[in-house]
Amino acid sequence: MIYEFCAENVTLLEKAMQAGARRIELCDNLAVGGTTPSYGVTKAAVELAANYDTTIMTMIRPRGGDFVYN
């Protein structure tokens, strides 16, 4: 079983990986359903995850709300 952790910053990533998370969904603004995180947050998360054999999945979403774009 793969344990996944949803994070909007790198503050808790190391603890999550130490606790067994092997897949991280990285996003920003969870209060609005999640948006794309900054380049800096993404880079830091990828560098940290390399130490734990953990996959980083980054949400690509320019705005909160639904997933319908016209």
UniProtKB/TrEMBL annotation:
<comment type="similarity">
    <text>Belongs to the CutC family.</text>
</comment>
<dbReference type="GO" id="GO:0005507">
    <property type="term" value="F:copper ion binding"/>
</dbReference>
<dbReference type="Pfam" id="PF03932">
    <property type="entry name" value="CutC"/>
</dbReference>
<protein>
    <recommendedName>
        <fullName>Copper homeostasis protein cutC homolog</fullName>
    </recommendedName>
</protein>
<dbReference type="InterPro" id="IPR036822">
    <property type="entry name" value="CutC-like_dom_sf"/>
</dbReference>
<dbReference type="InterPro" id="IPR005627">
    <property type="entry name" value="CutC-like"/>
</dbReference>
